[in-house]
Amino acid sequence: MQAAQQSKPWYKERWTWLLMLMPATAVVAGFITLWLAITSFDGLVADDYYKQGLAINQTLAKVVAARDSGLVGTVKFSSEEVGVVLESKAGVALPERLFLTLAHPTKSGMDQKFVLERRDGRYSGVVDTAITSAHWKVLLEDESRTWRLSGSAFLPTETEVRLDSADLKPVD
């Protein structure tokens, strides 16, 4: 009689539920991970990675062109305007218009592009949208896209950034 009284059905045993808790937790965590993977997009993986790899040679050629011209730029940011002072070797003609790109490191949808017009030896453009606080990649190119200067800045903390061709070193 005593053995029959101590024996309980399995669902009334505490150890049964305790042992099932870990696998159940893993299943719930798996469904949460699946939901996150389906609903979010990281945006970091490129579909045309091979073409992007081939484009590196073109980027390096732009860096070499900037280095050979002795180009160095200083970009100054304010809440209303972006200004650039561009220096070069003697005899190198500077363009009338520059393109400045602020590339966000992880979210391409946040990238900002500026067209800078030359006035009195200085290039300037208007800031339409507020620049959010982030670590930005700063790219400066001429209108024909024959050269490129690059650098990085933590905006809006840094208000002045020096750009040169030293960021991407071409292989000689």
What key attributes describe this structure?
single chain, 172 residues, alpha+beta, eight-stranded antiparallel beta sheet, 30% helix
Protein model, in words:
The protein has helices at residues 2-6, 14-39, 49-68, and strands spanning 72-77, 81-87, 97-103, 112-119, 122-126, 134-142, 148-155, 160-163. Strands 7-6-3-4-5-2-1-8 form an 8-stranded antiparallel β-sheet. A hairpin with an 8-residue loop joins β3 (97-103) and β4. The model has no long low-confidence stretch (mean pLDDT 84). By secondary structure, it is an alpha+beta fold. It contains 3 helices and 8 strands. It is elongated and about 100 Å long.
How would the blueprint of this fold be written?
Layout: H1 2-6, H2 14-39, H3 49-68, E1 72-77, E2 81-87, E3 97-103, E4 112-119, E5 122-126, E6 134-142, E7 148-155, E8 160-163
Antiparallel strand pairs: 1-2, 1-8, 2-5, 3-4, 3-6, 4-5, 6-7
